[in-house]
């Protein structure tokens, strides 16, 4: 039986320390992040160069998000009742298939946006569902902030050099050769990620997957998930749009992939330091104030874009976001997973609750992206775009308001 700490395999864990399985999981996460950072940063630019259409980019993101949500829900049965490690590997393999398809389709990829979006959505759904379940099982409330800090460090580290190298190779080798090279390199790294995943232990499965867990919990009065779900959706609103638009705006402002690589290098370096410090120093009792500061500052750094939308103001925004985002994401992620591991009943239903978490995030992403598509289909004036970014980028403030009760330290 699982405890409130979230371990399901009966293994011994040293309080506050990461064990070997946690470290291997972080390594898999790192390889997945590096492969995506190499090519993922430039996929939307690749599509934009074929057809400069904000709405098309939005539809590509929307198809991914809808497919990812469906994959989370359906794959939940596979992860809970069968081999969750195969879901993790399937996610990595499908990511490789995505980049293989982009290589094969070339400039014709823009015609098959819907198919590419479906494959990418399935890849993300399979990988992140299994990753989050295993993450829950190998961590506890005493080391969850530390794990999230290291995950942030690895993610930002992968963004320091890899996108810059991608931009450099594209600039030196030209569009055709450069994109072909970085997409091929991503394929190799994904393959290595699959190999490393076999060092993760095959984890025990128990119970039957409950398809309508979300409906059951949201109908129950005083259930904390009635506040957590809309809080996660508010988080997803920002993620859904900012995940693709910022890099694209940097490219549009500079017309150079190398400048986008420079932007990612600088902002990832700042995020690296921020995650490194907070992963060590942030304690559970400081989650509430930290998250409040993070949400306010993440909104404030959007304001320079109203002065002028250029590389300099985008860089101010990027550095500010990289600096303050960890104050928001570490408490948010840790608090939700602590809630899942709060007692034996919720820990037993960890797969269903992680699916519920992901569906809430995807719901927010879909809403944010739909709003983006509707607005850019009418106008792409800089002022309206900035208003749109400010409104969408401020959504995490609602997350903090709704999550205040869960962020408070437990007594006793």
TrEMBL record:
GO molecular function annotation: transmembrane transporter activity
Where this protein primarily resides, as one coarse class? Answer: membrane
Q: Which InterPro entries match?
A: MFS, MFS_trans_sf, Sugar_transport-like
> Sorted alphabetically, which Pfam families does this protein's record hold?
MFS_1 (PF07690)
Provide the transmembrane region boundaries.
23-48, 54-75, 87-106, 112-135, 147-171, 177-200, 227-254, 260-278, 290-307, 313-330, 359-377, 383-403
Q: Which UniProt keywords apply?
A: Membrane, Transmembrane, Transmembrane helix
Protein name per UniProt:
MFS transporter
């Amino acid at each position: 039986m699982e405890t409130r700490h979230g371990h399901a395999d009966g293994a011994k864990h040293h309080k506050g320390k990461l064990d070997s399985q946690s470290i291997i999981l972080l390594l898999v996460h790192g390889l997945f992040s590096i492969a995506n950072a190499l090519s993922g940063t430039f996929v939307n630019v690749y599509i934009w160069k074929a057809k400069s259409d904000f709405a098309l980019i939005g539809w590509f993101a929307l198809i991914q998000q809808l497919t990812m949500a469906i994959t989370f829900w359906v794959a939940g049965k596979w992860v809970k009742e069968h081999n969750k490690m195969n879901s993790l590997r399937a996610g990595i393999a499908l990511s490789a298939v995505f980049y293989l398809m982009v290589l094969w389709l070339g400039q014709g990829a823009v015609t098959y946006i819907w198919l590419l979006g479906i494959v990418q959505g399935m890849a993300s759904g399979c990988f992140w569902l299994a990753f989050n379940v295993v993450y829950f099982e190998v961590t506890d409330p005493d080391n969850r902030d530390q794990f999230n800090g290291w995950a942030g460090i690895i993610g930002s580290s992968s963004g320091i050099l890899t996108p810059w190298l991608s931009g450099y190779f594209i600039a030196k080798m030209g569009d055709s050769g450069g994109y072909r090279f970085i997409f091929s390199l991503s394929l190799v790294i994904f393959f290595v990620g699959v190999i490393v995943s076999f060092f993760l232990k095959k984890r025990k499965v128990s119970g039957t997957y409950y398809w309508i867990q979300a409906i059951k919990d949201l109908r129950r009065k005083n259930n904390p998930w009635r506040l957590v779900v809309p809080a996660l959706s508010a988080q997803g609103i920002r993620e859904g749009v900012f995940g693709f638009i910022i890099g694209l705006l940097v490219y549009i402002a500079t017309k150079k992939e190398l400048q986008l690589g420079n932007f990612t290098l600088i902002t990832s370096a700042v995020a690296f330091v921020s995650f490194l410090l907070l992963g060590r120093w942030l304690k559970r009792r400081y989650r509430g104030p930290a998250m409040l500061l993070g949400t306010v500052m993440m909104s404030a750094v959007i304001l320079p874009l109203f002065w002028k939308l250029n590389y300099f103001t985008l860089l101010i925004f990027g550095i500010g976001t990289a600096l303050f985002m960890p104050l928001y994401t570490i408490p948010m992620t840790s608090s939700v997973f602590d809630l899942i591991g709060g007692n034996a009943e919720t820990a037993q239903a960890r797969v269903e609750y992680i699916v519920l978490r992901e569906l809430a995030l995807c719901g927010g992403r879909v809403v944010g992206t739909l709003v983006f598509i509707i607005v850019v289909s009418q106008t792409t004036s800089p002022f309206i775009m900035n208003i749109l970014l400010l409104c969408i980028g401020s959504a995490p403030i609602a997350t903090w308001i709704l999550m205040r009760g869960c962020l408070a330290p437990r007594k006793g």
